[in-house]
Amino acid sequence: MIKNTRFAEITPPETEQRPHADTRHNITRVDEYAWLRADNWQEVFKDPSTLDPAIRSHLEAENAYQSALMEDTAALRTKLFAEMKGRIKEDDSSVPMKDGPFAYGSSFKLGGEQPRYFRIPSGGGAEEIILDGDHEAEGKAYFRIGGVDHSSDHRRLLWAFDDKGSEFYSLRVRDIATGADLDDRIADTGGSGVWSASNDGFFYTRVDANHRPSTIFFHDLGMETSGDRLIYEETDPGFFMSVGGSRSNEWIFIAINDHETSEYRLLPADNPLASPRIVAARETGLQYDLEEGGDIFFILTNADGAKDFKIVTAPVADPSRTNWQELVPHEPGRLILSILSFKDFLVRLERKDGLPRIVVRERASGEEHMIAFDEEAFSLGLSGSYEYDTETMRFTYSSMTTPAQQFDYNMRSRERTLLKTQEVPSGHDPEHYVTRRLMAASHDGELVPVSLIHHRDTPLDGTAPCLLYGYGSYGIAIPASFNTNCLSLADRGFVYAIAHVRGGKDKGFSWYEDGKRAKKMNTFFDFIAVARHLVAEKYTAHDRIVAQGGSAGGMLMGAVANMAPEAFGAIIAEVPFVDVLTTMLDDTLPLTPPEWPEWGNPIQSEDDYRTIAAYSPYDNVAALPYPPILAVAGLTDPRVTYWEPAKWVARLRARSASGNPALFKINMDAGHAGASGRFSRLEEIAFTYAFALKAAGKANVGPFSS
Questions:
Q1: pLDDT tens for each residue of 143-174
Q2: Cβ count within 10 A of residue 537
Q3: What percent of the chain has pLDDT over 70?
Q4: Which tens digit of pLDDT belongs to each residue from 68-77?
Q5: Which residues of 491-553 form beta strands (DSSP E)?
Q6: Contact 94, 422 (CB under 8 A)
Q7: What is the reported pTM?
Q8: Rounded distance, CA 511 to CA 502, Å?
Q9: What are the start and end residues of every segment in region (Disordered) (predicted)?
Q10: Active site residue 551
């Protein structure tokens, strides 16, 4: 790797080394930067002012360093921000969704950072603002609204907010008629709740001191929260838990799961005193999701070897597994992603041959039909419904060149009604762009899908820069959807590409299994193979590729930096999970026990320890020719703690053989999702794009349209 001379010679902060030894399975590791982990991290998440002054001083020095290195991009960032903001309809509004006498939606006002929630009479009439996010956020450095749920009698609103970025949500109850919040206030919740059938109380999840959703409570309106009734307590710290309700307002669902096992408990919505009953007891590897269906439940499951999932039914009277009856059989290679039921129809979203599709089934006859689309690569999503007894369902469609479109679809007549097309106020002509879907051969011959977009005037002779995005964990597939922000790169001659690597479910459930635990290295090999394929096909060159990934995708960035630093011209790692082994060894952290099925448990298993140690980015930093690297984090992030990237950057600087800079930008007022306002978030994206342009030597290049 040749040193990138586009960054000034500025001395970075010198991170003090305080060697700390840790021995597991007779293997000793020494971590010279372990002191950057705040011992009182639980307290810091709730009150950032309690952070150790020495740690705070170091983080502020890191911010000063990256600010100095990026000072020459100030004008570029302003321009990028203006471009991206110009593609957003500032006073945008969702299409209201009908629920009996009202239709509910959300909107933004001109210049507003936070959403407003409104309703209108179903028959037409004046809009009524029932929650104004900008008003609630006044005076707060960080503010994010969580769940918003109106009662079935339309009198009250249950809503949640987080004002630290640490995802400890507070619940409030609003009287819609007066606009005032009641005295019922609950802290440290999971961020949402669900009303009982009588609307005189609600169910909610409380998180414990280690940020784990461990209990479900019922709160009676007007009563002291100290007397809230415990509905269920989950004693296994390895499981996530949430509570929700059915659209018919008949059932309360308690969903319990880790990354490979699930369990549902349910109780009648009109009887909060009832004891939750199990649908199917947790069994390692058995996954299922529950959907109402009148006198039956529809269950999406991988039971009986249905790796790509099947749909079964079970009677409401006894939905235990012995009564499951197959409805839609398992079909290898067709991954059923989700189901949505109505009184007369069952809708499923599935993926086959790497592309999503929607299938509608008439419940009485069993007749099925698929909603057709024409483009080579696209994204689909089910928008849900407030109503159960309806013939209309809603879905969204977009591609990398087609702005998002929202449709109402009559499942009986098969008529499709376009409700809204995403507006791009500054203008968007899809004819100016080319989108492609490629296949790159990985190290073992597997073909990795690649979605990309570039301007039609971009030369494809190997001279174009490329931003290559990847994730590859938890079975999450990155959709080939419309992204107005990346157009700022495409307009400056970038190829914007998404590598659909193993660890996601882009090619079925096996694609996920082949990128986790003992097979995790496939994720990294796939990403490197995509980079090399793009070079071989003359889309770009290795020194022009800027790799980008966030969270577990940030781990991907750290791993490929160690494995093939010469394959990339720069790397952007956002909230990067780079200290995998240390985190998986710390069972006090919020996500560690629930994550063991995904990564392995190195506390109990030496094999898992060695597997993780072989790729954990922090553990494998060496005297390698690293390209310029930007790490981005949030101080109150409970998912990927700030000290992971802080330690990683310090070690990169100490060991890198290239002399290229490693930058660390930390938002001292935010968590995992970054800045909470829609425009302040754009400023963060403008910063990362400016880094990409600077690293690629395109910081002074204007868009084609100019």
A1: 999 999 999 999 999 999 999 999 999 999 99
A2: 14
A3: 100
A4: 999 999 999 9
A5: 495-499, 545-550
A6: no
A7: 0.94
A8: 5
A9: 1-25
A10: yes
Q: What is the pLDDT of residue 94?
A: 95
Main-chain dihedrals φ then ψ at residue 561, nearest 5 degrees: -65, -40
Residue 631 token pair: 């790490």
Architecture of the CATH domain 20-85+427-695: 3-Layer(aba) Sandwich (3.40)
Catalytic residue among 211, 219, 500, 672: 672
**pLDDT, tens digit (0-9, with 9 covering 90-100), for 584-603:** 999 999 889 999 999 999 99
Q: In sequence order, what are the beta bridge partners of 572?
A: 548, 630
Q: How is the chain split among helix, strand and coil, in percent rounded to 5? A: 25, 35, 40
CA 307 to chain CA centroid, nearest Å: 23
Please list, residue by residue across 622-660, b when 16 or more beta carbons sit within 10 angstroms of its beta carbon and e when fewer do: eebebbbbbbbbbbbbbbbbbbbbbbbbbbbbeebebeb
Task: List the domain boundaries for the chain.
Answer: 20-85+427-695
Residues composing the chain:
706
Per annotation, catalytic residue among 533, 637, 669, 676: 637
Residue 159 CA to its chain's centroid (Å): 21
User: Rounded CA gap, 657 and 23, in Å?
Assistant: 28
Known active-site residue 152 = no
pLDDT at site 488: 97
Pairing verdict, β 229-233 and 213-220: antiparallel
Tokens of 607: 């094999």
- Give the closest residue to 487 by CA, choosing from 413, 433, 408: 433
CA 259 to chain centre: 15
Of 476, 406, 250, the residue nearest 341 (C-alpha):
250
